[in-house]
Write a structure and sequence with these properties.
Helix content of chain A: 40-55%
Structural class of chain A: mainly alpha
Strand content of chain A: 5-15%
Number of strands of chain A: 3
Oligomer: homodimer
């Protein structure tokens, strides 16, 4: 059965629509709202739901397939698969880049006028979810 | 006197170089390593230091000037200025987008194989810095 993906994108943002789809779906995959064996909507249907060109969704699905999250099916559907954990060798370098991006994102939040204590609270609540 | 900016960029990343410069400098501005009144290197000098075209640095400086962090000077230098806090009206919408990006970034970190507890620790240490 097809799973509703429950994502939304904002075409006004600078981030390309396909990237927004990938990022939003990756959250749902990592957090296991979408589990191995579940079917995703066809490219055409999701494109209609999000009001984007079907090539945009096709590109997002290809990227998620390359990352090992989904398997593309005939008729342009896709199934969530059990993802092999990435090799530890890739992580040390990644880890540094991600830490920097995290710091940059927090700086952007502060620059946009968000209250520091509010940001801190969000960070703590994300940390708590990871520690469960 | 010119302040060394101490940033580094990675031309192998998908993120454009000018964006990396903006993001990295914004961290230093928000964290007040760079303070109002301090001079930044000229466009040409920073371009040389980072091995990028001077237009790349010029674009980054223009963006930081638009965000209200720096004032561009003749001869393509720039001075850090006291930034007016953004209007609260802009924040509610921003806040939701940033929270989503934070969640997406954490999902990317986990997807790359980083240990959940390690990520949690980083989040907590960022939170702690904000609470000071």
């Amino acid at each position: 059965m097809e799973e509703p993906v429950n994502i939304s994108i904002d075409l006004k943002l600078a981030t390309p629509a396909y990237r927004q789809i990938v990022d939003a779906m990756r959250v749902r995959l990592v957090e296991e709202d979408l589990k191995p064996g579940q079917m995703l909507p066809t490219v055409r249907r999701l494109a209609m739901e999000l009001s984007v060109h079907f090539n945009t969704v096709a590109q997002a699905y290809r990227e998620l397939a390359e990352e090992g999250w989904i398997e593309l099916k005939h008729g342009r559907g896709a199934m969530v698969i059990a993802r092999r954990a990435p090799r530890p060798a890739e992580n040390a370098e990644n880890s540094k880049i991600f830490s920097e991006r995290l710091r940059e994102l927090v700086a952007q939040m502060r620059a946009s006028g968000m209250d520091a204590l509010h940001i801190a609270m969000e960070l703590r609540s994300l940390a708590q979810a990871l520690e469960r």
